Every structure is written in C-alpha cells, then in structure tokens.
Amino acid sequence: MTTTLLPPVPIPVATAPTEPTEPTTPTPPAGPGRSITGQRLPRAAGWAVPAGFAAGGAAALPSGVSPGLVVLAVLVSSAAFLYAWSRSVEGPRYALDRLVTAVVTSAFGLALIPLASVGWTVAKNGSDRFDGAFFTDSMRGVVGAGGGAAHAVQGTLIITALACLISIPIGLLAAVYLVEYGRGDRLSKALTFFVDVMTGIPSIVAGLFAYSLFAMIVGPGVRMGIVGAVALSVLMIPVVVRTTEEMLKIVPNELREASLALGVPPWRTILKVVLPTALGGIAAGVTLAIARIVGETAPLLITVGITTGVNLNPFDERMATLPVFAYTQYANPGVNREAYLDRAWTAALILILIVLTLNLLGRLIARVFAPKTP
Fold it and tell me: Which CATH number fits domain 136-368: 1.10.1750.10, 3.40.50.300, 1.10.3720.10, 1.10.340.30?
C-alpha cells in the first residue's frame, strides 16, 4: 500500500500596514555662493590685524610719541577693528568671541612687557663683568675697576643654607600637625591664622625682629650671618607651611585608612605613606620658598651688613651677600663709577639666574616625583 505526500500549505503571515512616507526634498548642493558653515574671516586675521596696526605704531614712534601710548593705541584699535570686521562678516557671536580673545591676549602681552624689559636690561648691563674673575675675586683692597663677588656668593649660599635648616623642619612639622593631628581645634586655627599673617609681613619687619632678638642676647650692634638666616627663616616658614599643607591635603584618605587598617601606627603611616606620596609637591614648594628668600635685601642689610673680604663663619662678624653687594655697589659708587655699576648689574644678573634656576628645578622636581597614574 503506498502513501502520497501532499506539499506543505503556506501559512499567511499578517503584516502591519505601512504608513505612507512623506516625499523628501533633495538638498541642493553647495554652490559657489553657498557655504554650509557660513562666512568666516581668514585664518591669519587674528595676528595679521594686530601686526598691521603694530607696524603703523612703530612708524609713529620717531615722532616723539610715548611708547606706552603707542602700544595702548595699537591694542585698542586692532581689537576694535577686528571686532567690527568679524561682526560684519561672521555675525555678533563670533565677533564677541574674537573680541574677548583679543582682550585676554593683550593682557597677557602687557604682563610680559615688564618681565621682558627687566630681563633684557639686566642681561645687557650685567654681561660686561660676567667673567671668571667675578666668581673668584673679592673686593678686598679693590678701589676702582676689578674685583668680584666671590665673598658675596659664598655668603649668600651659607646664609640660605642655614635658613633652610631652620625653616624646612619647622614648616614640615607644622603642616603635618595642621593636616594630620589638628583637625580644626583651637591650636590649629590659631596656627593657621598666624601663618596667614606671617605670609604678608614686610621683609624689613623680619629683619628688625631678628636683629632685636639677637641684640637682647648678644648685645646692640650685632651683625652676623646667623642673624640674617633667622630673619630669612621668618619669611620662609609660612611658605613652607602653606605649600606642604596643600600637598598633604590632596593625599587620598584611602591610603591612610588602608595603612591604619593593617595596624600601622599613625606616625609611621605619615612617615611611610603620606609624606612619600606628597614628596614631589613638598620639594617643589620648598624650592620655591628658597627662591622667595634668596633675593631679599632689606633684612640682610640690617642683620648681616656688608664686608669686602671672605668670611665663612656665620657666627662671627659681618658677611657679604649678593643682594646687599648689589645694593652697596649701586648706591655708593667710588672713584670709578662705571666699575661699581657694572659689578652691581652683574650681581643682579646672578640673582635672577639663581631664582630662575630654582623655579625650573622646582617644576622639574614636581614633575619627576609626582605620583604615577596609569
């Protein structure tokens, strides 16, 4: 008996009715007179307009007009012209953006003018005596030309090193107390208040304080390197406290909690976890604090004085420092006036180079010792 297989019957599937679509209008291609982004000024307009007005201002300088007025007129006129041009072409939104950009850039340029002027003047006038003899000779027995500032360089290094030995431990311990132990109590609030006050005191007040302190101990008329170191430490301690405090605050609390959870004492947690984490910022802050005090003149003029020979003992008699050396050479020129002025400018140049080096070193330390993140 045979069976016949019938073909499968297709089952109809219900489909949703399709809605009629609206006809779309094709977008016409952008022609020569049509721009999708709108009209814009040339890319070089941001610097070409100020350059053109600056060329016109340079042409007006020989006529006897004040250079400051010429610079101000160039900045204002170039910003106004650029705003009007951009408003007519790009619209008010882009015009306002270009105006604000011009104002901010002009403010930055104006801030750089005094810095560049001082740097160029000191480098130009101080390069005449920037030689080997200036770093090896002293002023002992020198009346006119010749001599050097070897005794002043050595005195500056010794006094600054003593100020660091006094300031860095006190500043670090004070900052550790404020962040790790104080936590808003009365003593920490009082310490924070006095640190803020000390940050803004004039340098001459620090010199008078150190002189009065040692005058009561040793006697009136005292002039020693250690007195100048104490005066500089009064100026340096607030900076060290502030920078260290800010660096310790950004250390994550999770690191402290993890160390304490393992049974590590708080002092060891601070020593092994907190301080190494903030070491880069602390070192950079200390370096900037040194740069802050290395060029102080008023406190050293009162507490240390000046001498013409080399004195490497900070606990006996006067010492020479670069700031006071530059001041005395410029304020009290001798028979050969130009020789004294050249030595003053060279001492100022050395101070600027020291401060610049310390600032670059601080940035390098902060970058090298910063916590590494993936």
Answer: 1.10.3720.10
